[in-house]
Amino acid sequence: MESELVPPGLTYLADNIISSQNILGVTKEQSARWAQNLNLPRQAETVFFAGCGYQYSSQLEVLMSLIRQIDKSVIGAELPMRFARFQKKLGLNLPGIYSNVVAGGASSKVPPLEAAIKVLRSFGIEPGYLAEEEPCCGAPLYHAGLHKKFAENARQAYQKLKSFGVRQVISIVPYCTNAIQKLFPQYVEGYDLEVKHFLEVVDENISSRELRFPRQVKVTYHDPCQLVRYLSLVEEPRRILRAIKGIELVEPDWTKGEWATCCGGGGGFETVFPELSQVLAVNRAMELLETGADIIATHCPGCVMQLKEGLRELKVDGVEVLDLSQVIAMAIET
Amino acid sequence: MKKPSEFKNYKKEIMGAAHDDRLRLALSRAIKSFRANVKNALEKFPHTLKMAEEVREIKEKAIPQMEKLARQAIEAIEENKGKGYIARTADEALEIISDLVGTGKLIVKGKTMTGEEIGLREHLEEKGNEVYETDTGEFIIQKMGSKPMHILSPAIHIPREDVARLFSKVMGQEIAPDADIAKMVAAAREFLREKFFQADIGISGANVVAAETGTLFIIENEGNIRLATGAPPVHIALVGIEKLVPAINDAYKVSEVTWRYANYTVPSYVSLVSGPSKTGDIEKVTTYGAHGPKEFHVIFLDGGRTELARHPVLKQALYCLRCGACLYECPVFAVTAGHFGDKYFAGIGAVWAAIINKDLEKAASIAYTCLTCGRCRQRCPMKIDVPEMIIELRRWLAEGD
Questions:
Q1: Residues of chain A found within 8 Å of residue B19, distances taken between Cβ atoms
Q2: B-chain residues within 8 Å CB-CB of A8?
Q3: Residues B149 and B269 in one domain
């Protein structure tokens, strides 16, 4: 039995995962479009795990901006919590909206993922990609407290990966990586999967490459909570950024590494507290802007979305938010 | 949620706070100075890090035997001619204290979170007593009719101009909004001074208690607790049972780690109280009630702590030293202060709301406001894994035991 104490914003994500194997409840075909011209093999021992956050980033932006508008409007603070019901009431066809967004063209591209594949290939690594067969890691179920559902999903996801003969996973979304690497073994009997985060792979291979950013820039790095405090990837991103010629790494005095401030988008928080989440995004953006950076690099689809939102609210021009994979790819191209 | 309107009110309160520029300003200043102070304190006394590890071990051993330690402490306190009690519930604690206090009394109170937890001041006032909070922050809160917003700095959210206005009203002497803070502090001192000496009873909490000697360690900077527990003829202390450690040496270590992480190199005062005041100066005959209190009562409150201690994950909440450091690292607290919380604040507050105060609606609200970002854990001297507790609590709220 499921308690009514779980905020509906989170049960919305949870229901979507159960019904459609992704947090938005849309078709899996939408998720795989970014890779259609990359010719990644379906079957491979080592696969690239792309995750919902990046693959649906355009759709998520639409959802979040909608939710934030509702949250701030006179309709009331409670409604985003009951989003699914509200959506029906208004006759909103969200999956339809998402499809239109994607059909709109450019948004079927997911630059951070394309960049990541490019970077891996430059190291001679040719990973597989399960495309629409990629299972959802189910992390939001875990964070919502729905552990039975998470456990069931974890076992199915694991079986799915195994059924494709997967032995190694290169994962990129922080939440997914933590789930598959650290949480799955707690729920899956006989767990036998080697999970590496994309940055670890880059860090291992980077000395073999000459890296130069196309122009001279100041870059600051925002540590995603799950990467820095759950997966302990503190030095890797910094070593990588320092290895790129043309980049000067500038960081806040205090709020960096293990002390980095959360962007305000953690574990579904943004669906329960859309407006507060925006306030936190602005706060974090301000801390990072104090470094005088031209580029804010981070490495999480949630953080990218939040920090962009922060800059938008602050009406800051001339500072760009980029995923670290894009920064690395740009340094490889030149 | 069962009662969405309750959550709606909570969310409204949180957002109200988040849009309060004055609150934000007060907090951002406090956070900045806290970080600088704690850095300085830890650099000056680097052994604190190792000592914190030792204290974690002390707490891990002490928590499973709280009840035994409480009995041992009571035995020691009574040997010292004080009186000790174990209160099973908050109501029981209130009853014991009301029986000791009676009615029509003047009471001076030091800041106690445990008192806040059980609504002690309000209860004593209802029973017809006049109660004065003597901690400056707590005094401001009491006179404003507000609630504490931080466990160590209860008035952290109130800017000086508002304090000046309040004091002018309460004390009947005009304090300009741009007056020196020193002037405001002096006004509070003058106002409360006579109360300490007129009071029938002084009430305090304690930061840690050594069971073998029954010694209360009370850390403070203002000196109000020394007066409140020294001047009146009766001293009543209310202490959570989780504050007990075996030996006086253990208690010392707990104290030092507590004040260091509370951003002090050393506090102005640490009082060690083990019994009522006594003298043997006339013919070596021990006589009680010399210059300090003649009566000394210590109430150890369980109030759900034993139940909490049995939980494999949530029991960590009992290791908390109440240094308040985590609050300065919480991104949500930085914009909402104690509105994100209940009797205790931020993520760890959800555990207390659920198990100690048995308010599941409140616990859920707090638990789902936590980002589980883990920066509090990074700061915590006891390495309390708040995200782990929050996820477990959510599981518990969502799926039951």
A1: 279
A2: 1
A3: yes
Kindly report the pTM of this predicted structure.
0.92
- Whether residues A139 and A216 share a domain: the answer is no
Residue-level pLDDT at A91: 57
Q: Give the total number of structural domains in chain B.
A: 2
Give yes or no for residue B399 having a pLDDT over 60: yes
Identify all chain A residues contacting B397, using CB atoms and an 8 Å cutoff: 3, 5-6, 145
Which pair of tokens denotes residue B226? 């020394």
Partners of residue A258 in chain B, C-beta under 8 Å: 375, 378
Q: In this structure, is residue A307 part of a structural domain?
A: yes
Confidence band for A89, pLDDT divided at 50, 70 and 90: low
Within-domain flag for A3: no
Annotate B242-263 with DSSP letters as a single string.
GGEESSHHHHHHHHHHHHHHTT
> Does A155 lie in the same domain as A34?
yes
* Torsion angle in degrees (nearest 10) through CA of A154, A155, A160, A162: 110
* CB pairs < 8 Å spanning A and B: 121
Q: Are B251 and B208 within 8 A, CB to CB? A: yes
Mean pLDDT within B350-358:
93
Which of B276, B303, B330 represents a domain boundary (last residue)? B303
Q: What is the CATH number of the domain that holds B268?
A: 3.40.50.10420
Integer Cα distance of A271 and B302 in angstroms: 38
Provide the domain count of chain A: 2
Please state the rounded mean pLDDT for residues A284-290.
Answer: 97
CA distance B191 to B175: 13
Structure tokens at B231: 């001047």
Query: What average pLDDT does the segment B301-311 reach?
Result: 96
Is residue A77 pLDDT above 50, yes or no?
no
Same domain? For A170 and A223 the reply is no
Nearest C-alpha in B relative to A4: B1
Confidence class of residue A19 from pLDDT cuts 50, 70 and 90? confident
Residue A148 sits in the same domain as residue A270: no
Question: Which among B369, B374, B398 is the nearest to A225, CB-wise?
Answer: B374
Domain that holds residue B342: 4-44+315-399
Measured CB to CB, residues of chain A less than 8 Å from chain B are 1-8, 10, 76-78, 81-82, 142-148, 225, 229-230, 254, 258-262, 264, 266-267, 269, 272-273, 275-276, 279-280, 283-284
Range of the domain at A37: 8-59+105-202
Residue B212, by phi and psi: left (phi above 0), alpha (psi -120 to 50) or beta?
alpha
Tell me which of A311-320, B77-86, B140-149 is least confident. B140-149
Q: Is the pLDDT of residue A103 over 60?
A: no
Among A162, A183, A202, where does a domain finish?
A202
CA A150 to chain centre: 19
What are the pLDDT digits (tens) for B75-99?
A: 999 999 999 999 999 999 999 999 9
CB contact under 8 A, B11 and A145: no
